[in-house]
Amino acid sequence: MTLFSRSSGTALITGASSGIGAAYAERLAQRGYDVILVARDRSRLNALAAKLTAVHGVQSEVLPADLTRDEDLSRVAQRLADDERITLLVNNAGITVDGDFLDADINSINSLIALNITAPTRLAHAAGNRFKARGRGTIINLASVLALIHEMSNGAYNASKAFVLTLTRALERELKQHGVQVQAVLPGITRTEIFNRSGQSIDEIPTHMIMEVETLVDASLAGLDLGESVTIPSLESLAQWQQYESARAAMIPGLSLSQSASRYRQ
Ligand SMILES: NC(=O)c1ccc[n+]([C@@H]2O[C@H](COP(=O)([O-])OP(=O)(O)OC[C@H]3O[C@@H](n4cnc5c(N)ncnc54)[C@H](OP(=O)(O)O)[C@@H]3O)[C@@H](O)[C@H]2O)c1
């Protein structure tokens, strides 16, 4: 059943060949969006596109691209800048690397930075300018709860997701008055291929901590419908997030002053 009218427009989803991105493509097609599916694996994209058109009656296009390659990234960014039908960007493609920062292969970390930071930055810039000029549009950026957890996992991954969270908040400030909605989604552990791809095993993680992709994407889209700019799908206590935000806001007046703090003036 199509819940939304066919005027939803077109959603461009990166990392749509598996996991969270494929689930976004499915749910957005269900909402009546035509979809442009971006990832490297053309055959998986073709199979998903055919399914979405057959099941939901939407137009599905595949745009194969390796978003760590500048020419491919430029091509996708140009498409966002040029295609008036695109009303929604899901910046989802991402990778992680196994182990601590110092133990990880530096080339893998460079690829992570290219895919998790450079690519979504470039695409958000292209889409943000396009949507701002038009006065409507939506950008969904996939961060992670690791943006808020500095103590575990590979630091470069956490930092890449903190970048996405910060960029999203800044974009929200710039785009809000132009009718453009921006959302950072912070998934916890979600059952996808990201673990196997980085040589990890999800089987070692307690099952009560693992969310299924459909549950994650449904919660994220519900958060979008509520107008949230930050959505943490499993966090029951919204008050905890609000307290975190309040503590951060309370610090701001003291963060840049002519005098150092008294503890540094002995
Ligand atoms: N799963 C989790 O626990 C979890 C938690 C928090 C946040 N996230 C975030 O959620 C997002 C989606 O991850 P996922 O868990 O769904 O992982 P996934 O199943 O491994 O999907 C990753 C997607 O990114 C694409 N991709 C990988 N390298 C690419 C490249 N160089 N160029 C273009 N596309 C590329 C992959 O497709 P191809 O191989 O076909 O290119 C695939 O479609 C990521 O940003 C991840 O950091 C995941």
UniProtKB/TrEMBL annotation:
Leader sequence range is none
Query: Does the record carry Oxidoreductase as a key word?
Result: yes
Q: Which UniProt keywords apply?
A: Oxidoreductase
UniProt cross-references to InterPro entries, sorted A to Z: NAD(P)-bd_dom_sf (IPR036291), SDR_fam (IPR002347)
MF terms in GO:
oxidoreductase activity
Q: Name one Pfam family in it.
A: adh_short
What family is this?
Answer: Belongs to the short-chain dehydrogenases/reductases (SDR) family.
Its recorded name reads AraC family transcriptional regulator
Source taxonomy: Bacteria, Pseudomonadati, Pseudomonadota, Gammaproteobacteria, Enterobacterales
